[in-house]
């Protein structure tokens, strides 16, 4: 079987508390009840891609524990192929500690756990076993950078396409950026790469144009202002619909998953504008529920 979409990334158990406001340093606040759910940028994006109609194969690692078993069950129930996920016995499943304020903004601290055990050599072997000329790879940076770079190089060698959500923000080699088609970043991540101030769609478009010298195509997400994109011969701004914001935690992952799903579905005929349109719609839907992953229908 040749996979049309491979999602390489993290899988976490999310512990979320809703608060009136985020605490100041050294301050203790009382929050609402604790919500425990499956999360992690890789798992979130895999589920978002499946929700958008793709049949993604997930590559990642979980611990040999209850959280890991719940994660695999949740991904499988959501339409994600988990047969290639590693189950490790020397680290627990990753954990994310999340606070969400009443206006929907969040803070997140992640303990990597099993995600740090994702191995570049095993990832390469896994990709070679299932990828082909039209396979799309979607990756993020909550796993070791070496695994992401190896995966992108392998996909490129096989004739596929890499979509990298450069989150959380960190320094990455130019060799990885050069394989991104597209690179997906938010305003802060784009600033880290370019040094440019980004507060408006026009400023984001300028940053995307600058990044196009380093990537094959670029998308910069702008929250409630939608997203801008740039590719050779095509660029634009796609605004987001106005919705009631409950929690922004899953918006970026929903966006990336939907973009990758469209690119995997359309293959050689894929247009970045259409993919970004689907991503903007998915992100707008995601902010209307609490938690990083969509509720089951």
From TrEMBL:
Keyword Ribonucleoprotein: no
Subunit (UniProt): Homodimer.
Binding site for K(+): 247, 249, 286, 289, 291
Catalytic reactions of this protein: D-ribose + ATP = D-ribose 5-phosphate + ADP + H(+)
Ligand binding (substrate): 12-14, 40-44, 142, 253
UniProt remark on cofactor binding: Requires a divalent cation, most likely magnesium in vivo, as an electrophilic catalyst to aid phosphoryl group transfer. It is the chelate of the metal and the nucleotide that is the actual substrate.
PROSITE patterns assigned to the protein according to its UniProt record, in alphabetical order: PFKB_KINASES_2
Similarity comment: Belongs to the carbohydrate kinase pfkB family.
Protein source organism: Microcella humidisoli
Regulation: Activated by a monovalent cation that binds near, but not in, the active site. The most likely occupant of the site in vivo is potassium. Ion binding induces a conformational change that may alter substrate affinity.
EC number, as in UniProt: 2.7.1.15
Primary role: Catalyzes the phosphorylation of ribose at O-5 in a reaction requiring ATP and magnesium. The resulting D-ribose-5-phosphate can then be used either for sythesis of nucleotides, histidine, and tryptophan, or as a component of the pentose phosphate pathway.
Keywords, comma-separated and alphabetical: ATP-binding, Carbohydrate metabolism, Cytoplasm, Kinase, Magnesium, Metal-binding, Nucleotide-binding, Potassium, Transferase
Residues that coordinate or bind ATP: 186, 221-226, 252-253
Localization of this protein: Cytoplasm
Protein name: Ribokinase
Lineage, top ranks: Bacteria, Bacillati, Actinomycetota, Actinomycetes, Micrococcales
Top-rank EC class of the record's enzyme: transferase
Annotated catalytic residues: 253 (proton acceptor)
Record domain Carbohydrate kinase PfkB: where: 4-295
InterPro entries in alphabetical order: Carboh/pur_kinase_PfkB_CS, PfkB_dom, Ribo/fructo_kinase, Ribokinase, Ribokinase-like
Annotated metabolic or biological route of this protein: Carbohydrate metabolism; D-ribose degradation; D-ribose 5-phosphate from beta-D-ribopyranose: step 2/2
Cofactor dependency: Mg(2+)
């Amino acid at each position: 079987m040749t996979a049309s979409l491979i999602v390489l990334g993290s899988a976490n158990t999310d512990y979320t508390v809703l608060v009136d406001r985020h605490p100041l340093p050294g301050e203790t606040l009382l929050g609402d009840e604790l919500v425990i759910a499956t999360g992690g940028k890789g798992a979130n994006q895999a589920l978002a891609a499946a929700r958008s109609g793709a049949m993604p194969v997930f590559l990642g690692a979980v611990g040999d524990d209850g959280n890991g078993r719940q994660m695999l069950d949740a991904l499988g129930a959501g339409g994600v192929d988990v047969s290639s996920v590693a189950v490790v016995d020397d680290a627990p499943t990753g954990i994310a500690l999340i606070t969400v304020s009443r206006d929907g903004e969040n803070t997140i601290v992640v303990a990597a756990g099993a995600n740090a055990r994702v191995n570049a050599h095993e990832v390469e072997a896994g990709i070679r076993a299932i990828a082909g000329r039209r396979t799309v790879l979607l990756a993020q940076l909550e796993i070791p950078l070496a695994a992401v770079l190896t995966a992108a190089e392998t996909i490129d060698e096989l004739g596929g396409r890499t979509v990298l959500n450069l989150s959380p923000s960190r320094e990455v080699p130019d060799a990885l950026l050069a394989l991104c088609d597209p690179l997906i970043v938010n305003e802060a991540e784009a600033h880290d790469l370019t040094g440019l101030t980004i507060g408006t769609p026009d400023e984001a478009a300028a940053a995307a144009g600058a990044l196009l010298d380093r990537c094959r195509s670029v998308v910069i997400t702008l929250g409630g202002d939608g997203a801008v994109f740039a590719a050779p011969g095509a660029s634009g701004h796609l605004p987001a619909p106005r919705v009631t914001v409950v929690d922004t935690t899953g918006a970026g992952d929903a966006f990336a998953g939907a973009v990758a799903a469209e690119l995997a579905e359309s293959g050689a005929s894929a247009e970045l504008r259409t993919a970004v349109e689907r991503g903007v719609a998915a992100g707008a839907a995601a902010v209307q529920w609490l938690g990083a992953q969509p509720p089951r229908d």
